[in-house]
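> @MW can you paste both from yesterday?
MW: sure, first one:
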Amino acid sequence: MWKELQEQYSDVEAHFAFKKLNSSFLGKFSYLLHMVRACYELATSKFFIIDDFYFPIYVIKPRKGTEVVQLWHGSGALKKFGLSTIGKSYGPSIAYLKHVKIHSNYSRVYVSSSEVIPFYAEAFGMHEHQIYPLGIPRNDYFFRSDEINKLKEKFFQDFPELKDKKLILYAPTYRGKSHYQDVFTCPIDIGKMKEELQTEYALLIHLHPYMQSGLVLEKEDMNFAYHIHEKYNIQELLVLSDMLITDYSTVFVDYSLLCRPIVFFTKDLKEYVEERDFYYDYEEIIPGPLFTETATLIKWIQEGKYNLQLVNQFRKRFFEYIDGNTSKRIVKHLMETTKGKESGITEKVS
């Protein structure tokens, strides 16, 4: 989105403050220094843009004229988050909320469709009129044919053995709380998938950034299954794949824009509902079949009877726009709705 901002408003200065938390002592100290810098950026920016939980924002009072803009990292709405999880083991405790008002101080939020506005209002404790269904900027990538062609060329240079394979992407949700991951045990029998599918298919596996250490592939499975991380991000892998397997990750909402087969695999639905819960009935909302056994998953893949009409109906429901122009809309909305407002500070985006 910042590229679009530069193209439309070249006089606006953009700063970046990215930091991944390492839960070690040194990692936490480093993050503390990062928060000091974040406070400076908050004090000197017109727009402070985030896409996830961001602790410094919830423990300060933003300077008058600063707008905190939330571009939440999940499209649509499926599993509950934020204030919607109070009372669940996954959610914040009442005692913690007395000291840290999580998801407070947002000026505006951008989401994929008007249908999910009430859920975001609940999760962030906001008024619905502060939430705008203009789209998710990162999904503009799906519509950039030149960049996608370059991506494919690069990927098949790195993995020439996959050029004639159909690519299945397995992207499960994050397991754990905050930055502390649970031990990840793959519920799918990758060896069995290899036996039945390796002639025609290959399996790409992408875990959440905080879960990268949680997967060990058997040596004999490595010419079928590929754990892809760091070199290719999730949006790129979605574009490259012919089919998506997931569980509770909202990555399938993004993937629906491509209108390709989506299948769901999980063995702990009841436990997940108790731990976190969903905004919808999970089994009714998902645009694809749900399996709990590897054998039935394999059979479904082999038969190839995919209901893409269901996927198309889903994307129309959860995306107000399907055009690749989200960044333009949001930048225009940000700048035009603040014209004439007195901020008292230099126009800057962090």
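MW: second:
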Amino acid sequence: MVVGAGGLGCPVLLYLTAAGVGKIGIVDFDVVEISNLQRQVLYTVNDIGKHKAEQAVQHLKLRNPYVDFDYFSEKLSVNNALQLFKNYDIIIDGTDNFETRYLINDACVLTCKTLVYGSIQKFAGQVTVFNFPFDEMKRSATYRCLFPEPPAHNTVFNCEDVGVLGILPGLIGTIQATEAIKIITGIGKTLAGELLMIDSSTMNFDSIQFARNESSWKNFPSSPDAFQKFDYSFFCNGSALNSEIRRISAKELRENIQNKRSIQIIDVRNSDELPLLNDERVVRIPINEIRNRISEISKDLPVIVACASGERSAW
């Protein structure tokens, strides 16, 4: 099962389909956008606005009609992950946020599934294999062994926030597909217990070894019932906003500007991001500078925080 039919998922799906993997499941709730085409090589302009999972299957069937595909145009959650995973042997993580990565890891542990992990940002990527069965009694380290706690706010961003070299997902996704095929066929040595790190700006390949560490699982939901009650958004400091903070639309922001309201607008985008907000009430403070420039934020006026997608504003 491939979770995420985006930049990483597309090359994974292409190569697993070409290899003739008998059954492939795809989970992705998102739709194709024109900005995706820079790196999501399964899709064309004719797919814009349509569900990725469904469109992926249509394209893949043309390449190999003998593969049995299942697709789920829904968001992976604590309510469906265990049920979805139980019908597959290998789970491939093609997602781009920590909340879903921890969720996928924990669901794999509870269902005893091997997890092929990949991540990308700017020019860098990582690949490894989690929860791999060395024998009937012993499995390799998990995502929580390597990353016991999610990163603090404003320290790591996904590729939607900071961008990614369009070719990089193809490189990392192809390695993920390689690991899956090695696991299926039983050939070679997998990356279980080894994190492969790639810097495409220099083409340096490095790796580190890491071991299973069950003492790091203090936050792990140890039963299906606990898993379904676990709040991954809260655990990853995600979308739990203070009750005095609310989201507004771009239309509301425009109305606030046009009506000359006494407000302060904090633009947390990077200095090279366009378009500029040309208004005397705008203060541009890139999000990685907030801590050092906190005194510039008004304590008296209502403050509106703006960015490209809303994610950095919420942080």
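> thanks! Residues 71 and 108 are 19 Å apart (CA to CA).
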